[in-house]
Amino acid sequence: xxDLKDILQDxxxxxxxxxxxxxxxxxxxxxxxxxxxQWLGDEGMESDAVEGLKNIQPAxxxxxxxxxxxxxxxxxxxxxxxxxxxxxxxxxxxxxxIILLLIILAYIVIRIATKK
Length: 116
Known about the structure:
By secondary structure, the chain is mainly alpha-helical. It has helices at 17-25, 30-42, 45-54, 58-76, 90-115; strands spanning 6-9, 14-16.
């Protein structure tokens, strides 16, 4: 679940969501800002996303990120589908039995008809 809290990640390291938001709001020390900028410089798409986020007001940034994360979780976490069981439907069980009996009857009739 902690992986869902990281907004940007790759094989070398991760940039936590809180650190990214602090960078966008200007709350990081110069060393931390340089570290984030260096990480973003190595990335392509992520730096473009940050440029877009800079155009949004800081109060709206958190809401936007939360909405995006919520939508992604909803899409990525599989929903449990309730499967209907045949024992829950008595008509289906009767239909299966009737079809099997008809198949057996047809086999017998064909077998007798081909012997003559």
